[in-house]
Design goal:
- Helix 2 crosses helix 3 and helix 6 crosses helix 7.
- A hairpin with a 5-residue loop joins strand 5 and strand 6.
- Helices cover 49% and strands 16% of the residues.
- The chain has a single domain, classed as P-loop containing nucleotide triphosphate hydrolases (Rossmann fold, 3-Layer(aba) Sandwich).
- The strands form two sheets. A five-stranded parallel β-sheet has the order 2-3-1-4-8, with helices on both faces. Strands 6-5-7 form a three-stranded antiparallel β-sheet.
- The chain is globular.
- The protein binds adenosine monophosphate (AMP).
- The site of adenosine monophosphate (AMP) has 18 residues, from helix 2 and helix 3.
- Adenosine monophosphate (AMP) binds next to helix 2 and helix 3.
Length: 212
C-alpha cells in the first residue's frame, strides 16, 4: 500500500496515520516528526529546518525531498508507506511522482481529511504531544495541565511551539496557498478520496477504512 494523507494542520493526519500503520503494518513517514527529531538531536538539518518551522513556514523543498529520497531508498525495492505531511507543495508532489516512477511504482491513494477552520484552531491550541512516544492528545481531556499524561504510554506531554495561536494562523495560510492545490493535482490523477475529519478518532478511522 502506498498512501498519502492530505489535510490542514490539525486535521488529524498524525493520529489516523498511527492507526493505519498499526493495523496494516506499513511504515508511517511523518516529515514533521523527522524534522523535530533532527532538531532534538541538534543536527544541522534540524537547526536549519527550525528557522522555518518556528514561524509556521514550510522548510525548503530540496531539504524535504532529500529526506524522502533517503527514506525510500532505505526501504525494500518496492517500498510501501503512508506519508503524513508530505508532499506539501507542487514541486514536492512532482518530484515524488518522478522518484516513484523511477522505481516503477506509483501512489495507490491520496486521502484528504477535511475539517473546518474553527475546529482546526480549537484542536491545535489544545493539542499536546508525548515526549516519549509522540502520541497526540487534547488537554481538554484533563482537569489541568499538571494532571495531563499521555493516554498511550503515560509519558509527559508538551505543547508544540508551532501550536501557538499566531503561528497556527500562519500555518493555515501556508496550507491554503501551498498545499491545498494538491487536492486538484491528485484529483486530476484520479487517486484523490476526501473524507470528513469531524467526529471522534474512531469515527474518522472507520471512514478511512472504507477507502483501504
Ligand atoms: P507537521 O508536524 O506536519 O505539522 O509539520 C511541522 C512543520 O514541519 C511544518 O509547519 C513545516 O515547517 C515543516 N514541514 C513538515 N513537513 C514538511 C514538508 N513536506 N514540506 C515543508 N515543510 C515541512
Amino acid at each position: 500500500m502506498r498512501i498519502v494523507l492530505l489535510g490542514a494542520p490539525g486535521a488529524g493526519k498524525g493520529t489516523q496515520a498511527k492507526k493505519i500503520s498499526d493495523k496494516f503494518g506499513i511504515s508511517h513517514v511523518s516529515t514533521g516528526d523527522i524534522l523535530r527529531s533532527e532538531l532534538k538531536n541538534n543536527t544541522e538539518l534540524g537547526m536549519k529546518a527550525n528557522e522555518y518551522m518556528k514561524e509556521g513556514k514550510l522548510v525548503p523543498d530540496e531539504l524535504i525531498i532529500e529526506i524522502i529520497r533517503k527514506k525510500i531508498e532505505k526501504e525494500s525495492r518496492e517500498p510501501e508507506f503512508l506519508m503524513d505531511g508530505f508532499p506539501r507543495t507542487f514541486v514536492q508532489a512532482q518530484k515524488f511522482d518522478e522518484m516513484l516512477a523511477g522505481l516503477g511504482i506509483s501512489l495507490d491513494k491520496v486521502i484528504n481529511i477535511d475539517v473546518d477552520e474553527d475546529e482546526l484552531i480549537k484542536r491545535l491550541t489544545s493539542r499536546r504531544v508525548c515526549h516519549e512516544c509522540s502520541g497526540i492528545c487534547s488537554i481538554n481531556n484533563f482537569n489541568s495541565e499538571d494532571e495531563a499524561k499521555c493516554p498511550i504510554c503515560g509519558g509527559s506531554l508538551y505543547k508544540r511551539k508551532d501550536d501557538d495561536r499566531e503561528v497556527i494562523k500562519e500555518r493555515l495560510k501556508v496550507y491554503e496557498k501551498q498545499t491545498m492545490p494538491l487536492i486538484d493535482y491528485y484529483s486530476r490523477n484520479g487517486i484523490l478520496f476526501s473524507i470528513s475529519g469531524s467526529g471522534s478518532e474512531n469515527e474518522i478511522f472507520e471512514r478511512v477504512l472504507t477507502l483501504l
